From TrEMBL, chain A:
All residue ranges annotated as the Rieske domain in the record: 46-160
Source organism phylogeny: Bacteria, Pseudomonadati, Pseudomonadota, Gammaproteobacteria, Oceanospirillales
Protein name: Aromatic oxygenase
Organism: Marinobacterium zhoushanense
Coiled coil: none
Pfam families: Rieske, Ring_hydroxyl_A
Automatic annotation (TrEMBL), chain B:
Domain of life: Bacteria
InterPro entries tied to this protein: NTF2-like_dom_sf, Rng_hydr_dOase-bsu
Name the UniProt record assigns to this protein: Anthranilate 1,2-dioxygenase small subunit
Keywords, sorted A to Z: Aromatic hydrocarbons catabolism, Dioxygenase, Oxidoreductase
Similarity comment: family membership: Belongs to the bacterial ring-hydroxylating dioxygenase beta subunit family.
Protein species of origin: Marinobacterium zhoushanense
Signal peptide coordinates: none
Length: 419, 158
């Protein structure tokens, strides 16, 4: 192996490329700690929640960036705010409920209270009791506001950043990723459900998995086992210039006429169909562009998924160096009719913790985590489709996984790797 | 709810747990009516009226497909469940349709092939029961888990 050219905490990268990944990157506690500083609190936009979770002035919603607890609010002016969910007095969690409505946020410990913009409004017994005690004269409430984040909304997705160095969201995403988000979230959303999948692995293993188009037809055999001819003749990967975001898509070959395949993009000829109830896969081309699958990631923790009519956002929330929570929010649109809602509910069987084509993803990261236990010296190999991280018109590639490491190493080491 | 119906419901519940816990999974869909509904949700979503289910089916065919996918397609480590549930409590009796809605509490313990055992799920079943000939079938079973969190994956139905 070549000389060690970069070292961050206990992690030794064998080269300046992103084709060999040291396993210690998934197990090293110091690395995990450093990720909080360089990535989650670095020049990134972290997905927090859907704007639809904050429907009214006074709505609040609890989220996380890395392990840091965050509150998102819609203040009485209707503006979005985000701040650390931690009282500026003694550090207690401020908001104890997951979501709700409030006019202000009051800490249960000593009743310091904050408005929905995160400003300190009230300090209990600030003037003392019977002229005894109380805060010193020079105490200024304005010095003790909540730790505020930059917050931005894009197509109904709410992002927060600790850093002034993160560019505006559209620049951060790049034009191709931006337009692919707009494509999916094209009108007012309706939430149809939630769940959270506990992943017993480092957060990066899941994010890589979501970017990894190589494994899709190998690990997930639902479509092939049931001989469902997907007719998806075309597809590809888009990686943004930073490497951190990607889109993987497949679509019906536009040279096939609509008369032949109609709207039922994935239904096979009936004689080879082996499902007892094929209505599971009766989808409609709601975007009118023949794209049957689009998996999109935004660095460092968002997956936006459209698989036929099953649409969901997945938030990747690290909970320790080797555990992660994957927060699923299943969505439709406000103007969905009953038939469309039922279609989405049926197709949601494909995804989530019990998903026909995704349940394996909940386990495979843990297979890696267990496989690399006790290993400090070895590396994994990410060479499918080359050594760089560019967009490619095919899906048997790991280009977007390399893109992840390009962005990751850029932030962690301050030098763009050779990719 | 007369004694005979209560007896049939008790049998159905026992068959349900036994089918899953003994891995006689092909028997599971047969405990539902042809248009039987099944959904795994959580108390937060259920209380807010969200319709989504981690598993969602509105036909026995969909339930059969769930089992054949588990047998033939999906990849998951060998594991088994142990159901413990309590007696069904009457919610409503619809004399006209001949259906009875009951609820019961459950816990499911999951044991992996490695020997690791954990409390996997707890919650409430809300069941609409239909009586056919001399047996009871689920017209609908809603599995309302107490927690929104599912460890690793939900392969075998709850």
């Amino acid at each position: 192996m070549t000389e060690i050219i970069a070292k961050s905490s206990g992690v030794h990268w064998p080269s300046d490329k992103v084709t060999t990944i040291p396993y210690s990157v998934y197990t090293d506690e110091a690395q995990y700690h450093l990720e909080h500083e360089k990535i989650f609190k670095g020049a990134t936009w972290n997905y927090l929640c859907l704007a639809a979770e904050l429907p009214d002035p006074g709505s609040y919603f609890v989220s996380q960036i890395g392990e840091t607890p965050i509150i998102v609010t819609r203040d009485l002016d209707g503006e979005l705010n985000a701040f650390v969910n931690r009282c500026s007095h003694r550090g207690s969690l401020l908001c104890l409920k997951k979501s709700g409505k409030a006019e202000n946020l009051t800490c249960v410990y000593h009743a310091w209270s904050f408005n929905l913009k995160g400003d300190l409004d009230g300090v209990a017994f600030q003037r003392g009791v019977k002229r005894q005690g109380g805060m010193p004269e020079h105490f200024c409430k304005g010095d003790h506001n909540l730790r505020k984040l930059r917050v931005t909304e894009f197509s109904g997705l709410v992002f927060g950043s600790f850093s002034d160095d993160a560019p505006e969201i559209e620049e951060y995403l790049g034009s191709e990723i931006s337009s692919r988000i707009r494509r999916v979230l094209k009108k007012p959303l309706r939430i149809i459900g939630h769940n959270t999948q506990i992943l017993n692995n480092n957060w990066k293993l899941y994010f890589e998995n979501a970017k990894d188009s190589y494994h899709a037809s190998i690990l997930h055999t639902f479509f092939t086992t049931f001989e469902i001819n997907r007719l998806n003749q075309q597809g590809g990967i888009i990686v943004d210039s930073s490497g951190g975001h990607h889109v993987s898509y497949s679509m019906i070959d536009p040279s096939l006429s609509n008369e032949v395949y109609g709207n039922q993009n994935i239904r096979s000829a009936k004689d080879e169909y082996r499902l007892a109830d094929w209505s599971l896969l009766e989808s409609i081309d709601e975007y009118g562009d023949g794209v049957t699958l689009q998996i999109l990631t935004v660095f460092p923790g968002l997956v936006l998924q459209q698989i036929h009519n099953a649409i969901a956002v997945r938030q990747i929330v690290p909970t320790s160096v080797d555990t992660t929570e994957l927060v699923w929010t299943y969505i439709g649109f406000e103007d969905d009719d009953d038939a469309m809602i039922e279609r989405r509910l049926k197709q949601a069987n494909l995804v989530g913790p019990a998903g026909f084509i995704s349940m394996e993803d909940g386990a495979v990261g843990n297979f890696v985590q267990r496989g690399i236990a006790g290993t400090d010296e070895d590396v994994s190999v990410v060479m499918m489709g080359g050594e760089s991280a560019e967009s490619q018109p095919f899906r048997a590639t790991e280009t977007s996984v390399r893109g992840f490491w390009k962005k990751y190493r850029s932030l962690m080491e301050g030098i763009v790797p050779n990719a | 709810m007369n004694e005979n119906k209560r007896h049939l419901i008790e049998n159905l519940m026992a068959d349900y747990s036994a089918a899953i816990d003994s891995k006689d999974l092909e028997r599971w869909p047969e405990l539902f009516t042809e248009d039987g509904r099944y959904r795994v949700t959580n108390s937060e979503d259920y209380n807010q009226g969200y319709q989504h289910g981690a598993i969602w089916a509105n036909s026995r065919g969909m339930l059969r497909d769930r089992i054949s996918a588990l047998r033939e397609a999906n990849v998951y480590e060998e594991q088994r469940y142990r159901h413990v549930s309590d007696a069904a409590r009457l919610i409503t009796e619809d004399e006209q349709n001949g259906t009875i809605t009951v609820s019961s509490n459950f816990i499911v313990v999951r044991t992996m092939h490695t020997g690791d055992t954990q409390l996997f799920a707890s919650g409430m079943y809300i069941d609409r029961i239909k009586f056919q000939d001399d047996s009871a079938l689920f017209a609908e079973r809603i599995v309302v888990c107490d927690s929104q969190k599912i460890d690793t994956l939900l392969a075998i139905p709850l």
